[in-house]
Amino acid sequence: MSALPPGYCPACRIPVVWTELVTGELCAVSIAAQADGDVTVWPRSGQVPRGRILAGDDLTEARKNAVSLYGQHYPTCPARPPQVHS
Ligand SMILES: [Zn+2]
Prior knowledge:
Helices cover 10% and strands 37% of the residues. By secondary structure, it is mainly beta. The chain has one domain.
């Protein structure tokens, strides 16, 4: 088993997986891979898994190659107010 360590969203308390982006930011993603996900996750021993948000050609390629992609939690979190895009 290489299950990722589980966690919980502090706002809505549903289970999520915390990943660390290359920017050092933490990004909560879905527990299971999703058809419409856009985050790749690499487990790292003893550390928060590394997450990378894909876009454009990278995302298209990953989906074509059936890479496991996880959904970002925050855009869909029921306890967070919607983000306003200006
Ligand atoms: Zn949430």
